[in-house]
Amino acid sequence: MYKLLRPTELATFVTKWTFEGSEDDVRDGFIHLSTEGQMSGTLEKHFSRDSNIFALDCSLLIGTAKLVWEPSRGGQLFPHLYRPLQMSDVRAIIPLPGKIWPVAI
């Protein structure tokens, strides 16, 4: 599962080691995440005008209590995180398209 970030959002995240969310996240009250299969639709819908997008591999969150699978676009179940995203939740930062940058904690 992944969180997609713009460069400014990523800069804030790596500086603070926590991410309160994008404007959409804050408005909706949770951090929007996507599965690998949902990423292309999310990129097209929300990031089509952006370049240098980064995907945060948040698979470490699977099975945590604050992660809820809820219907969204087209009735698909999307993972929603009901707390700020922490650097310890991130397995890797992946520039799209690009090489995986492992997170060293």
From TrEMBL:
Source taxon at top rank: Bacteria
Pfam family membership, one: DUF952
Classification via PANTHER family: BLR1139 PROTEIN, DUF952 DOMAIN-CONTAINING PROTEIN
Protein name, per record: DUF952 domain-containing protein
Source species: Acuticoccus sediminis
Lineage of source species: Bacteria, Pseudomonadati, Pseudomonadota, Alphaproteobacteria, Hyphomicrobiales
